[in-house]
Specification:
elongated; about 425 residues; 7-stranded mixed beta sheet; FAD/NAD(P)-binding domain; alpha+beta; 12 helices
Length: about 425
């Protein structure tokens, strides 16, 4: 018998168990993997971008869906609280580009090790290889759970921190959705988010491995701007990726054919400035081919391909490029059209979009509005954010609030 059970030993579950135990509750943490924090090991390319050193309002601007739902959680446990907690427990942190926060060692394993040490110090019982089958209820409230082997574990509250569907190799199976639905919870359709995108056009695949900096990408649905940002992108063997593409993926409709993407390869120049620049380059090398002269504006591989994208013969000498063709080059350089075919698979996505609808969860406590004693935190909820440490901190902050709320509830009974 325990006061409360935490299902899931990822970022949200670890923080929920710590927060609850800190309040004085007797906590059992159940993880179906052979070790804790498997997904934490993958964050920040193994360096673990634990949070972002920003204000609450700045944080909420990085959350495309249901940002206000997070107000209480972020107020209860801010990015600065997370940084202080790690440092107080012997893990120094460093703030890097974009205010991304990493452990000073830049080892994700140190974050997991520190969190596990914090749990053991608070007396949390950790059970690995523990698969939960279903939750138990009596008189309309949670009374514990049953493991797949048949073992029953009674408790006054259960916190579901089971994650989403991204990175299934880490144990993200969607079990939390199933358990929540058993009590009438609605699960918003899940999609890969912070993910690369496949294009219908083939030409990006010929530029595989080419990274562009200071490029502007726009996603449009008719005349409506869904997303516009400047930064770094990458061409791949299937289409496009890189930081601004991953963030853009959060804002796209489920049906990708309902939108179109445009690249501005020269966002720092006005159309008039770019037209004048092209004319200067052509005047300086009238006998050279168009493709060759474009190397002054684009990487060599892209320059060789670009005239075809614009619909102009790249072998033409600059002296023979017409005014209309020069205008077309300028327009295409600042408005390269791309059509999206599909998102990359969930196995490659950084986070899951969708999940348990937040309208059915009390944002002040993370408790279910439908089942007393049931709490949620982390990626199982329908909340996701851009890259930069925001998603991991959503897990930590909602976990902290769920743990504290659940502990206070059971200790007051």
């Amino acid at each position: 018998m325990a006061d409360l059970l935490v299902v899931g030993g990822g970022a949200a579950g670890l923080m929920a168990a710590y927060s609850a135990a800190k309040e004085g509750a007797e906590v059992i943490l159940l993880e179906h993997n052979e070790k804790l924090g498997k997904k934490i090991y993958l964050t920040g390319k193994g360096r673990c971008n634990v949070t972002n050193d920003c204000t609450l309002d700045e944080f909420l601007r990085e959350v495309p869906r249901n940002p206000r739902f997070l107000y209480s959680a972020l107020s209860a446990f801010s990015p600065q609280d997370m940084m202080a907690l790690l440092e107080d427990n012997g893990l120094p942190v460093t703030v890097q580009r974009g205010r991304r926060v990493f452990p000073l060692s830049e080892k994700a394993s140190d974050v997991t090790r520190t969190l596990e040490h914090m749990l053991r110090k608070q007396g949390v019982q950790i059970r690995l290889n523990a698969d939960v089958d279903h939750l138990l209820t009596e008189d309309g409230r949670i009374t514990g759970l049953v493991l797949k082997g048949g073992e029953r574990i009674p408790a006054s509250a259960v916190i579901l921190a089971t994650g989403g569907l991204a990175y299934p190799s880490t144990g993200s199976t969607g079990d939390g959705y199933r358990m929540a639905q058993a009590f009438g919870h609605t699960v918003q359709k899940t999609l890969p988010s912070l993910t690369a995108l496949e294009t219908t056009e083939v030409w990006p695949t010929h530029l595989q491995g080419l990274s562009l900096k200071n490029t502007e990408i726009s996603a449009m649905a008719g005349k409506k701007v869904l997303y516009r940002e400047q930064g770094e992108m990458l061409f791949t063997h299937f289409g496009i990726s890189g930081p601004i593409v991953l963030s853009m993926s959060c804002h796209l409709p489920e049906d990708l054919s309902a939108c179109q993407v445009f690249l501005n390869l020269k966002p720092a120049l006005t159309p008039e400035q770019l037209t004048a620049r092209l004319q200067r380059e052509f005047d300086a090398a009238p006998r050279r081919s168009l493709a060759h002269v474009l190397e002054t504006l684009l990487p060599q591989r892209f320059a060789a391909l670009f005239p075809e994208i614009a619909g102009i013969d790249g072998d033409k000498t600059c002296a023979t490029v017409t005014r209309a063709e020069r205008q077309l080059l300028q327009e295409t350089l600042q408005h390269v059209p791309l059509h999206l075919h599909k998102r990359r698979p969930m196995a490659e996505a950084i986070v899951t979009r969708g999940g348990i609808t937040v309208k059915e969860v009390d944002p002040a406590t993370m408790q279910s509005r439908l089942m007393p004693g049931l709490f949620f935190c982390g990626e199982v909820l329908d909340v996701d954010a851009h890259t930069g440490g925001y998603n991991l901190h959503i897990a930590f902050s909602t976990g902290f609030l769920a743990g504290r709320s659940a502990a206070q509830m059971v200790l007051q009974q």
